[in-house]
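Lab meeting notes turned into a lecture example. A postdoc, R.K., suggested we walk through two folding results consecutively so the class can see how the record format repeats. The first protein's sequence and C-alpha cells come next.
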Amino acid sequence: QVQLVESGGGLVQPGGSLRLSCAASVMIFSFNRMGWYRQAPGKERELVADIISADSTNYADSVKGRFTISRNGAANSVYLQMNSLKPEDTAVYYCNGERRGANYWGQGTQVTVSA
C-alpha cells in the first residue's frame, strides 16, 4: 500500500522559513513524478512545485525564487524548503505522487504565515 505522510507545517511570521517533508512508504524513485500542492480556504488546490528528476523541477510563478523542491532516495522523502514566506502562502500543503498509473495524496499539513 502506497502512503505519503507530510510533516513540518506550522505557524511562521512573514519572511520566515519552513521545511516540509513527505515520507513515502515505497521507493520514491518508483514514482514518475512527485510534487507539492496547496489549497487555501475558498480556493482550488494548486500546484506549488514538482520534481521528475534532479534536473527537472517545476515551480508556480508565485513561489519561484523562494521555494525549493528536493528529494532524498535514501530517506524515501521529498522536501519543500520555503523561504521568505508571505501571508498568501497560508494553506494546507499536500504531497502528491504519480506511480504506475495511479495518483497518491498525503493527508496535508497546515502552513500559516501570520504576524
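The second example is placed directly after the first for contrast:
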Amino acid sequence: QVQLVESGGGLVQAGGSLRLSCTASGRTWSLVDMGWFRQAPGKEREFVTSITRYGGRADYADSVKGRFTVSRDNAKNTWYLQMNSLEPEDTAVYYCAARARESTSYNYWGQGTQVTVSS
C-alpha cells in the first residue's frame, strides 16, 4: 500500500501563488506516475497535471498551462504543484494521486487540500 499526504493549500488573492506538496510513503518503489486533480463545488473532479516518476514527462490541462508547474523529488518521494497567476476559477479541493506500475489508472489518492482564490 501507498499513503499520500498533501500540504500547502490555503487562501490567496487572485494573481497570487501557492505551492502544494504531496509526499508518498509505503510501497513507493511501485509508483510510476503522479498527478494532481481538483474538484470545485458542484463540479466533477478534473485532471490538472501529471508527471512521470522516471523521465519527468509532464502533462497539463489546458486551463492551467503556463500558470501551473508540476515537479518531483524522487529522493523525497514528493511531488509539487506550483500554482502562479491564480484565478478565482482555480478554487477547489486539490488531490494528489499516484499510479503504481501494475495499475492502468491512479490507484492511490491523498486526502485533499483546499485552495481558495479570492477576487
